[in-house]
Amino acid sequence: MMSEAEVPDLEPLRAWFASYCGSFRSPDPEQQRNFDLKEKHTRNVCLAARRIAQGESPRFCMLAEVAAVCHDLGRFPQFRDFHTFKDSDSLNHAHLSAQVVKEHALLDFLTRQERETVEIAVRLHNVFEVPAGLPPETGKLLRLLRDADKLDIWRVFIEYFQAPEEERASAAGLGFPDIPECAPEVLDAVRSGKLVHLSSLRSLNDFKLLQVSWIYDINFVSTLSFIRERGVLEQFAAILPDDDAVLDALARVREYLDRRLDDSTRNP
Ligand SMILES: [Fe+2]
C-alpha cells in the first residue's frame, strides 16, 4: 500500500514543466502551434486526471496529476526532431516520455514504489490494450491516465475541425487524407463494439471513427459522465459524414454509453 504521509506539493514539478515547454520555443509559428497544442493538452489532462481521481486518497490524486504532467513529455522532442506526432513514422512517444522523466529525475520526491507506478503508467499510456498482471495501483493509475488523455484528445480533435485551416496545428490530424469515405472494416469494428486499430486507417474519417471507438475503452464511470455532459458523440456526429452506416455505428456507441451509465446507477 502507498504511504498516506503528507502529500508533496506539485508546484516545483508544474514550474519545471513550464520551463521544459519554454525550452522548445520555436520562431516558426507552425512549429510553435504544435508545441502549444501539447502544452495545453498536458495542462488539461492534469485537470481531467484530478477530476476523475476525486474521491480517491489525496496521495493517489497527487500521483494522477504527476502521471498526467509526465505522460506526453516525449511529444516535444518527437515533434522537434521528426515534425510529426505519428509514432509509427517516428518513435514511441510514451517511451520517450519515460526517458525524459528519468533523465531529469522528476520523480525523486516520491517513494520508490510510487515512482515505479508513475513510470509504468507513463510508459504504457498509449498501448492498444492495458496488459494483464499489473500491480493493482499501477493498473488503476494507468487506466485513469488513459481516460484523462482521451477526454482531452477529443477536445483537441474537435477544435481542430472548428478552427480555420491556417490556424490548425498541422500534426493533430496525423496527415490522413480528408476524403469522404470511411473504410468498411473500420465501420464494422465500431458497430461490433470493438476498438479500431490505428493500422486500419486510410482517411481522416477513419481516424474520427477510431476516436469514437475509444468510448469502448473508458474505465471510470465519471469519465463516461463527462462524455455525455460534453456531448462528445454529438460533436463527432457533426464532423462525420451523415450516412446510414455512420449513423448506425454512432447509435451503437451511444447504446453502449447509456448502458454503462445505467448499470453504474443501478450498481454503484
Ligand atoms: Fe496525451
Protein model, in words:
By secondary structure, the protein is an all-alpha fold. The chain folds into 2 domains: 11-150, Hypothetical protein af1432 (Orthogonal Bundle), CATH 1.10.3210.10; 176-266, no CATH class. Helices cover 63% and strands 0% of the residues. It is built from 12 helices and no strands. It has helices at residues 11-22, 29-53, 58-71, 75-82, 93-103, 112-124, 136-162, 184-191, 204-213, 221-230, 232-239, 244-266. The longest helix is centred in the middle third of the chain and has 27 residues, at 136-162. The chain is globular. The mean pLDDT is 93. Fe (ii) ion (FE2) is lined by residues 41, 45, 71-72, 149.
Number of helical segments? Answer: 12
CATH class of the largest domain: Mainly Alpha
CATH superfamily of the largest domain: Hypothetical protein af1432
Q: Report the uncertain regions.
A: none
The span between the termini is: 24 Å
Question: Rg to the nearest angstrom?
Answer: 19 Å
Main pleated sheet = none
The CATH topology label of the largest domain is: Hypothetical protein af1432
Shape: globular
Q: What ligands does this structure carry?
A: fe (ii) ion
Total beta strands: 0
How many structural domains does the protein architecture include?
Answer: 2
Q: Percent of residues in beta strands?
A: under 5%
Structure class: mainly alpha
Global mean pLDDT: 93
Order of helices and strands: HHHHHHHHHHHH
Helix content: 55-70%
